Prior knowledge:
The chain is built from four helices and no strands. With 134 residues, the protein is mainly α. It has a domain at 59-124. The longest helix has 36 residues, at 48-83. It starts with a helix and ends in a 12-residue tail after the last helix.
Amino acid sequence: MVKRIFLITISVLLLLSLTPNLVLASSNCNPFNGLVPPPTGDGNTYTIADFFSLIAAIINFIIFCLVPPIAVLMLIIGGLVFLFAGGSPQIASLGKRILITTIIGLAIVYGSWIIIDIIVKALGYTGVWSQLPG
């Protein structure tokens, strides 16, 4: 049974790995556009603001481009493990744990984003706090 789940998981991962170019072509999450912002200092030099813009770009890329597909993949894997448990309570509980921890992880990631947004807006900042001006 474990061998069957492993083969199904590998098959799903293989199918999902064939589609990133289609997804990246129509979104803002294309890593080939680059995460490093162009220099804004005199004579094309980088400033401290560019460093913070780089940090913001990396955080935005992780939260909005990496987390959603990984979460969907983990939900699929958890669902498949739960589906193919075949009456085994240990495997069924593993599938449940994968689903629950994925949902908890998403709640932590996006909940922290929302809390930071609320705090920054309560302090009076009216711009986009995740993107520093260049």
